[in-house]
Structure prediction request, 894 residues.
Amino acid sequence: MTAVQTPRADSSAEASAVSKIVARVKRVVASNPSVLPTVAAIVIFIGMVIYGEVAYGRIVQANTLSNLLINNAHLIILAVAMTFVILTGGIDLSVGSVIALSSVAGVMLSNAGWDPLVVIVLMILIGTVFGLASGILIQYFNVQPFIATLAMMFLGRGLAALLSTQPERLSEDSPIRWLGEQFKVVDGEKVNDVVVTPGVVIALLVVLAAFFVLHRTRTGRTVYAIGGSESSSALMGLAVPRTKVLVYVISGTLSGVAAVVYTSRLGIAQNITGIGWELDAIAATVIGGTLLTGGYGYVLGSVIGALVLGLMNVLITRDGGIPPKMTTIITGGILLVFVLLQRAVTSKRHT
Amino acid sequence: MTEALPLIEMRDISIEFPGVKALDGVDFRLFQGEVHALMGENGAGKSTLIKALTGVYKIDGGSIVVAGQERQFHGTSDAQSAGISTVYQEVNLVTNLSIGENVMLGHEVRGAFGVNWRATHKAATEALATLGLEHLDTHKPLSTLSIALQQLVAISRAMAVKAKVLILDEPTSSLDAAEVEGLFRVMRVLRDQGVAILFVSHFLDQIYAISDRLTILRNGRYEGEYLTRELDRHELISKMIGKDLSTLSSLGGNRRAEERDYAAEEPLLSAKGIGRRGSIEPTDLDIHRGEVIGFAGLLGSGRTELARLLYGADRTDEGEITLHGARVDIKSPADGLGKRIAFSTENRRDEGIIGDLTVRENMILAVQAERGWARPIPRKEQDELVEKYITALNVRPADPNRLIKNLSGGNQQKVLLGRWLATTPELLILDEPTRGIDVGAKAEIQEAVAALAEDGVSVVFISSELEEVVRLSERIIVLKDHQKIGEIVNGPTVTAQQVVDVIAAHGVEAAAHSGIIDAEAGLHPSDSRQASVHALAAAKEES
Prediction:
């Protein structure tokens, strides 16, 4: 008897815990409807995990989830970068080609015998310079963000091609590869281990730092205020010009960081690396609930957005039956659902 | 008033914009613990002076002395650190953040782990409490508040930074009478605490109710500083517009002593049961040639919605419109324009002017649209057209090549009026043509409307200011809750109060008192108090 009863008691306790969480989320959403798209992103992500586990198995286990993080660390960093820019109502199209330039330059310098630390710093600085240029164009020359960063995108891609059009291999003994090396944190059964790379740690630190800046500093709140109304923010005496330049500098710098993380894992850099990644980052940000017009959104949502995209690729690979070409179609579909969801939320807010 | 040292002294301030002196040697003083009104027509330089004081504009000449120290402001944050806070006509807050954050933005309380939100919200609540708003939940988004409350939150923001000088630039234009009274209570409290308040309003009643002293500007020049109680209204207006008020008040309007024989005349436009779901209930309406017909009702009563149906800006769901006796289907604004119906929007800034085009380009826009873009209007014809309406409507400055965004609101409105007149309409619909513009420009627009009707143009005149509707209209359509609730044939005995009564009270009963010929039953008697308060506030301006 007892043997039968115990699991039943467990499941009801579980159910009440779930309903408690649901009730809590409902309260938060009710008091602040702008978190709804982010909550929806989390729900969809959990849904995808459950679906994957049921349909294909071996999703909810340490090595799958570890790999998800390892393979998408660079995308998470890019999504965080894009969140800053989009929160102000801007856009940064240059992140993908900044990665190409930074990676190719980094690998070539490293192979030429430069000190790995110097190379890493330079890779990040390349991003910073691009971001600064975009920011100055946008703020002081009144160029639209779309156009300014589009110009930087072409510039970056072109410079990368100037450096090399061949795949550049990072030499096997380069210390930079350490950042992409896998470390077992928990030794599970067979291959089911919790594994991290220093790149994943960097991505998580970036997320934490971004969260702190956006929610705990005046600069971060100014980012949100600019997204709400740039002219009002200026009249309130906030440092609008400085902050606007800063978000592009942050975006560029983080692109440089993403280049380091990506290159260290793959060990190869090419001038065509990162084509379309700016769109992946925008998609991740939007799926995570950030409004393209600015002012609403959360870094955490963008991380979930990046993981949704990553998990989708995993599921498609696992399925085997779905042609890889479907990936983009599915991405587009998910994006559309989220944009429609945002429409619903914003129209509710206006009435 | 004791001649203590002024808290702010602006001496000989000059500001030049390309080709125009916006301010020319203006002096301005502001003392501790006073409410000082800054007066002048639109375009007189009030906003420019305020923007000089708040650091938005750099001054080209003169000096600004704050508390005995000469200051150079390079931006709004400079002025704010000198203790000058500003609340603008349009609420300049960010609706995506919480109430508390809006109060504290840029001044959040910080601790070891960045912004300390608990302390920040506590400080926000304290600032709100100085205005009696401690009951607001500072965590809620600002967008949950009414415009009036948002305006008060904006003032709380000034309190949070312990402003010594508070500038209120037309804060009352979106408030109703009760809210204005609340604001004044707050202003008196602040004044008694020693805050110096600079107040701008187009409502003379408000100026006399709250201000201690006033400075008058005219055409960018200093006209004088007076104690409010020593200057009566007529003198004040005369000084603002630089001519005698009697020339303005002679405007008789279009109301006639005897009624037209409406039955004998074929209406220009006749609408039978036109309506659109969710915006206006089915409505009958006749408009005759050379008639000014007023639409009266509160904001949101359906006046704009009805007008948009007539012009084709919105499609009708039901009913039919006949024009010159023939049934027509007005599908789009272009359609309306083709049938000689013109519509001037209430939303001047967003739907009316195109800020980055010149006066000339703005004015010929409708004519050009009518002719089609393939046939550009020859420059000579443009010049003639533009010249004609600049002169006729007294647009100032009379420079067709100036960007329209650099004109004052009143003059922008005149250009828009010119735009539609240039299409020689038979029916001109003016939605709030006088909102937010000064006495002088208002009178000129009213005059133009009356003259148009004389020339046989039918005009639909929509305004929140009932006095104005009553003065100008031959007939008044009264709207409430998205339906027409009555029609008043205007006569010498009709007053704005009667219109208010119609809106407030029951249609049939009010009809017996105020000569309504066509009152329809079925209005809701609720909200009568609020309605009359609001309408009175709107009607307050001109007395």
